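User: Hey, quick favor. My workstation is busy. Could you predict this chain's structure for me?
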Amino acid sequence: MAEPLPLDVAATLNALLTGSGQVSSALRAQLPYARAVGRYGCGCGCGCGCATVDVAVDHTAVPPAPAHGNPAADAWYAEPEDAGVMVFTKDGYLSLLETYSTSSEPISTWREPRFVER
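Assistant: No problem, here it is.
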């Protein structure tokens, strides 16, 4: 069941999609039309417990972003230093936001967007 993006997820996406590039601008324009359709552990299926959110965007409300690679944006966190966050798209629309850790401890909650370092 789709639900509005949680505030921490929306803030993280906004921090990741800063800048004036065409792809970032187009993906940021999708945020008002984005919904969380799933929350679970790591998107790779390993069950590590890292925070991940599947995202769906109303394709009738906003156009897709121009062609680009995946992840569409990624960054490290300043705190904790061993964690990062990535946003993925499918067919030009936001589809997945994932946080990950390079240590043995999963990142199970979203860090404050002020710690995102692009």
